[in-house]
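Q: Here's a chain of 299 amino acids. Please give me its 3D structure as tokens.
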Amino acid sequence: MVRQIPLDPAGRADGPVRGEDHSGGMHEIAPDLAWRRLAIVNVVFFGRTGAGDREWVLIDAGVIGATRLIAAAAQERFGPDARPAAILMTHGHFDHVGGLEELADRWEAPVYAHDLEHPYLNGTAAYPPPDPSVGGGLMSLLSPLYPRGPVDVGRRLRSLPADGQVPHMPGWRWLHTPGHTPGHVSFWRESDRTLIAGDAFITTRQESAYAVAVQTPEMHGPPMYYTTDWAAARRSVETLAALEPDRAITGHGPAMEGSDMRRALHELARDFQRVAVPEQGRYVERPAAQQEGGEYRDP
């Protein structure tokens, strides 16, 4: 059974954030924050239009084949040859690291991630296997085919600061929001209550290829087929709902804002077991152990 929390699709403050500029699909939700959907996932750009070289930040790096599109979007927004000060990773799943190695090398940019995510970004460990039995959609059924081995940006990889500050993003802090992956993080700006949630929660039913294509706004927990600790995922959603965000960019689905979004997020947190957790599945009763990914190669 499909379990979902619908969101108001009307073009007003309560619903999808409709702001869009002229860079071929880039959506600006604040003067210094924009996102773009690339295939099945969103990437986020922090920095004002025309910021210039080393004055902006990329958050996540899309799917394989998205490198050219990410670079072109960055050039359009920040100026020719403008390189980021850093690349920040919410986590290292295949649909968030597709362009990471090439872009980090091209831009000579440091890559920041939570320490628990480093094995999947420095070439030493693969993620635990996905669970194709959950979610009931084509994206779930195809999940065994998705790459789960690591990328290797080890020489550029850095730890997020222990004090919660976000490199090159003043006024923001990072929050450890595990469950979908061990080292998943979200980013929060208190001043305007803006949240970059990654896949801690999302606004489309990612298990369904149709929902991914249509992008009808719905509040969902993390993608079922790649979530390996459901108790931690619930606690992460509760943490983010308690922030009372005014707007949120998620890793999948349209950015949302307003009271309708907050209502749906609180409902997701309250009813997480019923609406987000599969009735049965590989990781429902027992979370994945770190070693279940296995060693990808010797460190």
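Q: Can you summarize the key feature?
A: The two ends are 43 Å apart (CA to CA).
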